Amino acid sequence: MDLVEKLPELDSGAGRQSQVAELEQVWNGADQGECVYVCALLKESGIPFKIFEQREEFWKAEQAYRIGVPTAFVDRAQQIIDTTVLGDENDQTLDAMELPADETDEPEEDANWDPDKWNPEPATVQLWSGQDLGRAGMIKSSLRENHISSRSENLENGSRNIFVEPDNQARAQEIVREIETGSPEA
Predict the structure, then answer these.
(1) Are 119 and 151 in contact (CB under 8 A)?
(2) What is the pLDDT of residues 96-105, one digit of tens each?
(3) In angstroms, rounded to a whole number, what is the distance separating the alpha carbons of residues 67 and 84?
(4) For residue 68, how many other CB atoms are within 10 A of its CB?
């Protein structure tokens, strides 16, 4: 870490106001640890960000964190958050959550399946909703491992919705049931 004699001056007035106005929210939640993790990912990727902290003081002492990035970085930041925070790269989770082979219900292996070239518009069936990013990551990883494309939607209250295509609803629901109950048996 480089030491400096004097910290740089912050812009004040209208310049600073316009910088804040140009930020778009890419993450929110109540867990400080998750907030720190997301900030570290953004910093590591060279994406500028700002944290907004809100504390309820009246009846309860809840704390909420929001992270905003400049508009030009929104897509890249969201991709990093969705793939890394949600755990798409966690191979142990993927292996553990793969559905057992069943010749009667197993769809044909699609050699052309490419989740990066998938159109998310047909994913209209809400599969899961919640604020547990770890669980959301496990669900998305398990769906991906089973060649089920999904899309996520972040809500202002910190919740995340996961959607799948209607054709994959039954298989996806079985995956979520296994994750929720911790049992592969129906």
Answers:
(1) no
(2) 445 555 544 4
(3) 16
(4) 21
